[in-house]
Amino acid sequence: MNLHRIASEIDSLESRWHKILFIVGLKKNEDKQFASELNIPYINLNLRLSEKLQNIPKSNYPLQVGEMLNEIFNGYHAPALWLGNIEILFDKQLQQHPLRLLEHLSKRFKLIVSWPGEYDGKALIYATPEHPEYFKCSELEGKIVIV
Fold first, then answer.
1. Cα angle for residues 98, 93, 76 (degrees, 5° grid)
2. pTM score, whole prediction
3. How many angstroms separate the CA atoms of 130 and 112, rounded?
4. Whose CB has fewer CB within 10 Å in the chain, the N or C terminal residue?
């Protein structure tokens, strides 16, 4: 069962510098179900971050995104956090490298990330090359689980 494999991978993060696990290939709402079964708080990143961003000028987005995520994550007192709906991180207005941002945060927080794209065996990919938010990264510090 995928749940046992994910739980095992989460446990193995404890000894890593970057405590981040990317889950690729989940069906709709499967991440919420797994998070619930593993008793891990689920964070809809699109919702939570967009709520915070609406009160600041767009020109300040790049400087405040990391700080806002830190603040959101600090609100949970749990050994791990499950991040879903992370598409907002690819928005060009934020001027962020989504993986570097999450990796940086994973030094303080154990993160399980529902990847909204695919893994080609070498790189995590979001969107298609002609899409304005296309993203591909092969240099990453996290672990990847394909379900």
1. 50
2. 0.94
3. 28
4. N
